[in-house]
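Record Aminoacylase-1, 408 aa.
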Amino acid sequence: MTSKGPEEEHPSVTLFRQYLRIRTVQPKPDYGAAVAFFEETARQLGLGCQKVEVAPGYVVTVLTWPGTNPTLSSILLNSHTDVVPVFKEHWSHDPFEAFKDSEGYIYARGAQDMKCVSIQYLEAVRRLKVEGHRFPRTIHMTFVPDEEVGGHQGMELFVQRPEFHALRAGFALDEGIANPTDAFTVFYSERSPWWVRVTSTGRPGHASRFMEDTAAEKLHKVVNSILAFREKEWQRLQSNPHLKEGSVTSVNLTKLEGGVAYNVIPATMSASFDFRVAPDVDFKAFEEQLQSWCQAAGEGVTLEFAQKWMHPQVTPTDDSNPWWAAFSRVCKDMNLTLEPEIMPAATDNRYIRAVGVPALGFSPMNRTPVLLHDHDERLHEAVFLRGVDIYTRLLPALASVPALPSDS
Ligand code: MET
Ligand SMILES: [Zn+2]
Ligand SMILES: [Zn+2]
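=>
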């Protein structure tokens, strides 16, 4: 599809580009502007709008399209409003201008992760409302802050609040990842983020000496053990074509800290690791493994967790799950190929699943390179619009799932 001039641009694309220009970029997102944007959109669409301040300055905006049968549980469409930082010098276009090139690619931070999805939800609801539809189940759209830094001042708090329980969510959709092939990836579980800092203490002294028991030597041993484990998991993934990235445990060494001068042996050094633990791992045994690598390195080597998710959940992807049945039926009817996978990263879906709500991670972008968090993050307007079509089919099906035992 070739690009149209601005006067011919699809209004859904225009709204998408407007949202992309709001600078909700970490570490200082302009959440006020995002909330105002959704309030205004709610007004235009005739949707209920509720603001829940889960922490000072951290507002969850809830837009609601009531269903015809209030006894049924609702459909929750979640998206986060924050985006990750940019390295502006590596971008072909200003990442907050939402520039559209002559082919129709829209360049912006958040184009894939996940401002596209927020607008696709809204535009699908708009279309269905304009066509005069009503569905039995209520549809709530939640726009949440803070996901990109862990969701601790966003969804993690929101799911504990009475306002969340009052939504009576029976099923949720949240973000997925683009797929470069013709297929669409859908995520039914997630790896658990474990952020681990290993601190090593040892003998300080003059750096000209062969000092024994130094912090660096012991830290080196732990780093070796963990990177050997990384290599093992990588080989396991490489050698088995049936395994996807989310099915093995990954780890990266992301920070090294310590030292004051070239010629002073420091008494303390630390290494930080980002583990993503596969859902089928025995968590207790895995933690013991980490502890034993530290112990094997010598005295004075300890670890602490900056993040340690312990509640991985799996949403069934067979017809025993009526939500999956409805979701996959629509995709089949639309001739979309689905690739069910475990999310390699972490999303707010982990909090939603942990309070007992089945959830899928889905960002309808096929034939699209995976550019989330990358330079030149972009999405073709035709792929974006196709996503609106997909939600326009998914929402009626999900919001019409007949009464379930869990609804009463
Ligand atoms: C682990 S906190 C979540 C932040 C981000 N979504 C990630 O997966 O890294
Ligand atoms: Zn995201
Ligand atoms: Zn992200």
